[in-house]
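Good morning,

Both structures are done.
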Amino acid sequence: MDTDQIIPKQFLKRIERTGFGEFLFYDWRYLPDGQPNPSFVLNEPRYQGASILVADKNFGCGSSREHAPWALGEFGFRVILAPSFADIFANNCFKNGMLPIAVPVAEIMKRAQEVEGYKLTVDLETQMITDEDGLSVSFVVNDFQRYCLLEGLDDIGLTLRHEDAIKAYEAAR
């Protein structure tokens, strides 16, 4: 799925990082008259409030727009599971506090569709995906990205951890 489907280009006029969630998957989520499309999976009541998105391969391909992770995050997703991701998209996810995990998803999709109220747990500390019915899938996140996500740090947050040293340098200059 390319980023123009995740957040269509006509909604990229904003300069803020907010306000994109309502336009996530817009062309699929809404009918031409602006009403929610009842046949689109994310409009089903059972998936309302989900924080894990299960997707297909090469998720986030296309342009490198950072708006796609912004829209996904604002909609409420914190984790995206897919067999593969576009590299720039995956990096943008990490930089925006979202965890993209490349794993096989067929069994997870099947369970989510078949089990009403299906719950999936993603544990970044142990790097495991589990459910209440015995599913157990391990994944690997590089140490730096894992640290940043666990600590809630983006690039600015990482820099501000050295604020005292930066102020001292500036004062001595």
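Second structure follows.
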Amino acid sequence: MQQNSSSIIWKDPRTVFTTKQLTLMIGETDTTAIAKRMYYFVHSGQLLSLQRGVYAKPDYNPEELACVLQVPCYLSLEYVLQKAGVVFQYDSTLTAISHRNRLLEVDGHTIQYRQMRGELLADMRGVQNIGNINIAIPERAYLDTVYLNAQYHFDNLHPLNRKVIQELLPLYQSERMRERVAAMFANSK
């Protein structure tokens, strides 16, 4: 049965799993049996135990880890803006939007969750789902950053699509934010 469980896990494209996800994948209802299997997989080097109830394949994706540790959430803010060339200062921290503020250090990865209003967090416009990863497009990450930090300095607004920003801006329901965004783009010419 362990060999069968192992092949199910390795065939799955996900690289990070919770105990609940593994239980559903394997089809086991006995929690003691699941615990024994996870113990075996971890001690035989097939899986890593990253945190209580969170397991990963040895070559796991840290972005996926961030999305599994805090649900609901999506990667955004500096992490996405850095990848898009909007901010230049390198920081290895994975930044995400969630329902509460939290800073985690897991297996050498720093993950910072920033709290966002429930209706904004639930609205997935401008957020892509790629496998087990929810990640904001650069325009949504920009607006999330402006919403959470009005004084934030952006190095380069040119990679951003202004039309997409204007389409997403009503999500935030803030005239003040609309004015800040307009001023930032007026000053970036």
